[in-house]
Amino acid sequence: MKITIAGAGAMGCRFGAALTASGHDVRLLDGWEAHVAAINDYGLRVTDERGTRAVRMPAALFPAARFPATAGDVPPADLVIVFAKATATAAVAAAAAGAIGPATRVLTLQNGLGNIEALLPYVPRDRLLAGTTTLGTELVGPGHIRALGSGETVLGALASGSSAAQRIAADFSSAGLYARASADVMAVIWAKVAFNCVMNSLCTIASIPVSALARYPGFDDLAGTILAEVAAVAAAEGVRVDTGAALALMKAQFDPAASGNHLASTLQDLLNGRPTEIAHLNGAIASRAMARGLAAPANTLITQLVGLLEATHDRRVTSLRLPGRRSSSVMHGHEPDMCKASEGETLKGVKACPARPSPAMTGKTASRRYTRPATPLSSDTWCAAPRILMMPRTSSPRRS
Ligand code: NAD
Predict the structure, then answer these.
(1) What pLDDT, on a 0 to 100 scale, did the predictor assign at position 345?
(2) Mean pLDDT of 256-265
(3) Residue 33 in contact with residue 395, Cβ under 8 Å?
(4) Looking at ligand 1, which atom is closest to the CA of residue 12?
(5) Is residue 88 within 6 Å of ligand 1 at its C-beta?
């Protein structure tokens, strides 16, 4: 099968590498120049539990209008997989339109709501497939991904009577990307949205790995409030969300052996200074609720809080050096600025400490008091953020 992957970041590369290795003719399209150059020069490096290997496949810069000198031509494919963040689906679909011929099927496995609507101007409904994946993948740097563990991909056609989903799921499974077809793909997508609306948002607001949610005794109530709003909007759109099953699935993730030490993608985006997909998660629930005359105050507030975190990213308080002590952990990798606060100061006193720019950071950060958690999180967890944050980000459309 000729497969074009539009938006070849962490997940696009993971699918591209597996499908190439199982004999498909895969082409990657992405707008990050250093990433595309590294893949073409050295192959895509894939690190997993077996080590690191290079997988050769062509990558091209797109959209062509932005890279007239270097963009490759984009011939029609049998399958186009859109794997940008939900915030970029429309732009990426427009840029990849040349790969969508009269027989091409288009598949989205992205998180969030709104991807299907963004793709429909570029492909008729009977050739559009959608779904979800629980595979986890990180971008280590240009041309290098880390494939995390195993997961399941579920996909289905939007138009009934199509057998394409079964065929594509079989191809994915043969490539080691365990997949199955679903006759009710909207229920699958909404179940994932419900999961993300709770887990991604709470972990982002609290700046914690998934497992830390287990320490909060009010988790069931908080998750239940968010889920009830999601389920009401889904019901208004003709989809049933099983809130009990959703809650059970979330709590199963608290186990460090499941995805307990994982950092939610929304938190990773925030820590990396990239736009999050919040508008397509809690934000979509809030706006769809409003359009239907429903109330969704929890999802509205969560959307606003994550918006606040995004808008204030470069002013985030990440550390405190108390007099006579070494600096605490620095989650953002910023040099801590010294705050001359005395050890007994209260939170009020913390606020009084001026947010002055550090000369070393040319005004990018300021410091506040920091109190270590009563029980420190695992060292794995504390190490995770700086490792991710080392990725270069400046010359890519990832910040746009
Ligand atoms: P990513 O940010 O790693 O990759 C997206 C790629 O799209 C980037 O390489 C970026 O350069 C490219 N891009 C974005 N806008 C572009 C534009 N206008 N023109 C050209 N290129 C553009 O994202 P990801 O982690 O691979 O996630 C993709 C989707 O899959 C998201 O919806 C995410 O929520 C979902 N998802 C991710 C994971 C995971 O573990 N990474 C797991 C499940 C689902």
Answers:
(1) 31
(2) 77
(3) yes
(4) 26
(5) yes
CA 204, CA 143: separation in Å to the nearest integer?
A: 27
CATH number at residue 216: 1.10.1040.10
Same domain, yes or no, for 164 and 234?
A: no
CB of 12 sitting under 6 A from ligand 1: yes
Q: What is the pTM of this model?
A: 0.82
Confidence category of residue 71, pLDDT binned at 50, 70, 90 = low
Residue 77 Cα distances to 11, 69, 304, angstroms: 19, 22, 40
Burial class (CB in 10 A: 0-12, 13-18, 19+), 73: exposed
Residues 22 and 149 reside in one and the same domain: yes
Closest CA to 214 of 250, 178, 241: 250
Supply the residue whose CA is at minimum distance from atom 21 of ligand 1: 31
Which structural domain range is residue 26 located in?
A: 2-183
Of the residues 150, 183, 216, the one at which a domain ends: 183
**Is residue 85 located within the same domain as residue 103?**
yes
pLDDT digits (tens, 9 = 90+) for 281-292: 999 999 999 999
Q: Is the CB of 91 under 6 A from ligand 1?
A: yes
**Mean pLDDT, all residues of the chain:** 82
| Residue 345 located in a structural domain | no
Q: What is the CATH number of the domain that holds 176?
A: 3.40.50.720
pLDDT of residue 395: 36
Residue nearest to atom 40 of ligand 1 (CA): 136
In what helix (H) or strand (E) does residue 106 lie, and over which residues does it extend? strand 105-108
Q: Is 114 a domain residue? A: yes
Residue 260 banded pLDDT, cuts 50, 70, 90: low
Sorting pLDDT into bands at 50, 70 and 90, what band is 261?
confident
